[in-house]
Design a protein that fits this description.
Helices cover about 50% and strands about 10% of the residues. It is built from 21 helices and 12 strands. Strand 9 and strand 10 form a beta hairpin. Bound molecules: adenosine-5'-triphosphate and magnesium ion. Adenosine-5'-triphosphate binds next to helix 8.
């Protein structure tokens, strides 16, 4: 094996300085280093600093085993089965520390214990530890495999990540087909980094995605919920959404959007919501996954409600409740949306039926609903996209109403909203037919209503 020295970039040949690194990450690096272990920054932290961006977090890697890390830090928690990791906690700040991953020999009995792979080649567990060079090869993209060594502030670039950064190219380490099969989420990560960092995806890295996109179906729905948040709520939602569609990944994440062929109005509404969300994030405003899911699934719910109402002669309101349940229960099979968010999604949708009926005391009751503001924004978005006079008039009416009846500030306060969310009963209980809950252990937190 070639010596590590050949990959070394000394301090005076790169731009990363300690003052750019988070204090807590530095504390962890030094504690490991002073205890005699190797301690390096790696991943997004190094990559973003080299690109002149502010890193979202700092990931640390070391030759200390998880148990050795735990022995060194009182504020340490070991997590993960698939990949065992140490989390060092500093109040709300978490620094992730991973032990160098190694190559595994599927024939060795010891490694079989620590590594588990599905028949299709997906890694279900990967806890073989190794050297820094091996660790680099187990990472996903070359630009994510650059290390910053706290021992002498040099970098190690074992996979040619610096060159790719310079040419703004995203390249997978190793054989793309094998690496995507090992972990199909790498296809989503490829799209995320392309959009977030404005990189060009290399042709070898791009080619297999459309062919392998269906492998995402094997990823646990809870992991996909987290990934979709990173994809759509990180400030480049629109670009990411378009890339996901281009690479046939959106079709696997949200099959319901493509069941009846793609709908232009639905697409326009989703794109506008993502433009608005990207803007909010740029302004440092709060965004909620519930709103974007409500937008993504709105037209399937409407279409289904009309179909049910036509087929059965049921009142539209009741058909709408059924349609909401159906659409959500299909969606949570691929993406496990936690119940606290499905409750808000349902509120936003239900309020669309209540906002047009504002006679008597109704307006006041709707206005006091904890999700009024989100529902009103949703209505305004529909009016903008559908360009329908009744919707526009309704928006104007509610705008004037709000101006004439300003709410006390606390009404929109975060605490207030959270409290109301916790107490909120599941609105499915008002569904016209008796429905059964499927008792699924894995998704006890998730909306798993059977449609
Ligand atoms: P960001 O934190 O900005 O979203 P990141 O690259 O740091 O980007 P993380 O999810 O924090 O992403 O992961 C840290 C590092 O761990 C990555 O840079 C990469 O080296 C490695 N990594 C993460 N996920 C995978 C994966 N699925 N396969 C291989 N390596 C991975
Ligand atoms: Mg990171």
């Amino acid at each position: 094996m070639p010596s590590l020295e050949q990959y070394k970039i000394p301090r005076d040949k790169h731009t990363i300085s300690r003052k750019d690194i988070d204090d807590n990450a530095l504390k962890v690096l030094y504690r490991l280093h002073n205890a005699g272990y190797r301690a390096l920054l790696v991943g997004g932290g190094v990559r973003d600093l080299l690109l002149g961006l502010k890193p979202k977090d700092f990931d640390i890697t070391t030759n200390a085993t998880p148990e050795e890390i735990k022995a060194l830090f009182r504020n340490c928690r070991l997590i993960g089965r698939r990949f065992r990791l140490a989390h060092i906690l500093f109040g709300r700040d978490v620094i992730e520390v991973a032990t160098f991953r190694g190559h595994h020999d599927q024939k060795s009995a010891q490694d079989i214990q620590k590594v588990k792979q599905s028949q299709g080649g997906m890694l279900l567990r990967d806890n073989v530890y190794g050297s820094l060079e091996e660790d680099a090869e187990r990472r996903d993209f070359t630009v994510n495999a650059i290390y910053y060594d706290i021992a002498d502030f040099s970098l190690y670039d074992c996979c040619n990540g610096m060159q790719d950064l310079k040419e703004r190219r995203l390249t997978l380490i190793g054989d793309p087909d094998v690496r995507y099969r090992e972990d199909p989420v790498r296809m989503l990560r490829a799209i995320r980094f392309t959009a977030k960092l404005d990189l060009k995806i290399s042709p070898e890295c791009a080619e297999p995605i459309r062919r392998l996109s269906n492998l995402l179906q094997d990823i646990p729905a809870a992991r996909l919920f987290d990934e979709v948040i990173k994809l759509l709520l990180s400030g480049q939602g629109l670009t990411t959404y378009r890339l996901l569609k281009e690479y046939k990944l959106l079709q696997v994440l949200f099959p319901i959007l493509f069941k009846e062929g793609e709908d232009d109005t639905a697409t326009a509404m989703i794109e506008q919501a993502l433009i608005d969300t990207d803007k909010r994030i740029a302004q440092g405003k709060r965004v909620t996954p519930a709103y974007i899911y409500a937008v993504l699934l709105w037209y399937p719910v409407e279409q289904r409600a009309h179909a049910i109402s036509c087929e059965s002669g049921m009142e539209y309101h009741d058909a709408f409740l059924l349609a909401m349940n159906e659409v959500l229960s299909i969606q949570v099979k691929s993406i496990a949306i936690p119940k606290r968010f499905t409750a808000t999604i349902r509120d936003i949708w239900m309020l669309q039926l209540r906002l047009p009926r504002f006679g008597g005391k109704r307006a006041q009751r709707v206005y006091q609903h904890i999700k009024f503001r989100a529902a009103f924004d949703f209505l305004a978005l529909r009016a903008q996209i559908e360009n329908a006079t009744e919707l526009k008039d309704l928006v104007v009416w509610w705008q004037e109403y709000q101006q004439n009846n300003p709410l006390p500030v606390h009404q929109y306060g975060r605490q207030h909203i959270n409290k109301a969310n916790e107490k909120k009963p599941d609105t499915t209980k008002t569904a016209p037919k008796k429905r059964k809950y499927r008792n699924k252990k894995r998704s006890s937190n998730t909306d798993v209503l059977d449609a």
